Amino acid sequence: MTNRQPARRPARLAVTAAVLLLVAYAGSRLPGPFALLDNLSNFPAHFAVAFLACAALLAWCGRRALAWAAIAAAGIAIAQVLPWYVDRAGDLPAAAPPHLKLLVSNVYYGNGQYHRVKQLVAEEDPDVVGLIEVNDGWLRRLAPLRARYPHHFEVPDESHVGLALYSRLPITDAREVRIKGEAKTAITATLVTAAGEIDLLLAHPTSPVSAQAIRRRNAQIEALAGYVRDSGRPTLLAGDLNVTMWNPGYRPLEDVAQMHNARAGHGIGPTWPAIGRLGVPIDHILATPDVRLRRFRLLRPVGSDHRPIAAEFSLR
Question: pTM (2 decimals)?
Answer without folding.
Answer: 0.92
